[in-house]
């Protein structure tokens, strides 16, 4: 089935780019989480929401210019809304729930618990971004 292999290649490349952007976003998220709790004294749950939002905005920009390069700029605000509605909601809810569960139930340090929470939702976030957020009006991917 050579055709299916060729079809899978662009998706695999986007997954790799998505993962690299996500790794950079995780760095942003951890830095904001650390600064929010240690320097600003914000509670871990609220700090997690703030940190996820910072990472979401970071990731969206990089997905626009690199992961799904070539998507028409005209739909950018719609995609930003979709990105927040879908991957943002998934990320914020799962990050707060899993970070607090790993931290409180398993006594895992906050930043390590947050890394684990991010890993839980990475595949789901990619699937939603690929199928709904960055899909062009003609049904073609960038």
Average the pLDDT over all residues and give the rounded result.
Answer: 87
Shape: elongated
Strand content: under 5%
Relative helix content: over 70%
> How many distinct beta strands?
0
How is this structure best described in words?
The chain is an all-alpha fold. It is 82% helix and 0% strand. The protein has 4 helices and no strands. It has helices at residues 2-39, 44-67, 76-105, 110-133. α1 (2-39) packs antiparallel against α2 (44-67), α1 packs across α4 (110-133) and α2 (44-67) crosses α3. It is elongated, with a radius of gyration of 16 Å. It starts with a helix and ends in a 9-residue tail after the last helix.
Identify the notable features of this structure and list them briefly.
single chain, 142 residues, mainly alpha, 4 helices, elongated, disordered C terminus
What is the compact description of this entry?
This protein has 142 residues and is an all-alpha fold.
Produce the secondary structure layout.
Blueprint: H1 2-39, H2 44-67, H3 76-105, H4 110-133
Helix pairs in contact: 1-2, 1-4, 2-3, 3-4
């Amino acid at each position: 089935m050579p055709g299916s292999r060729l079809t899978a290649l662009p998706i695999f490349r986007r997954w790799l780019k998505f993962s690299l952007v996500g790794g950079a976003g995780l760095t942003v998220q951890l830095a904001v989480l650390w600064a929010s709790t240690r320097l600003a004294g914000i509670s871990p749950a609220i700090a997690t929401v703030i940190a996820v939002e910072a990472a979401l905005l970071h990731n969206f920009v990089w997905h626009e210019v690199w992961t799904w390069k070539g998507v028409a700029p005209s739909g950018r605000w719609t995609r930003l809304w979709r990105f927040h509605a879908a991957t943002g909601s998934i990320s914020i809810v799962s990050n707060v729930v899993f970070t607090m569960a790993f931290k409180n139930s398993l006594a895992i340090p906050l930043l390590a618990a947050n890394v684990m929470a991010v890993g839980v939702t990475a595949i789901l976030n990619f699937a939603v971004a690929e199928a709904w957020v960055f899909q062009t009006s003609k049904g073609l991917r960038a």
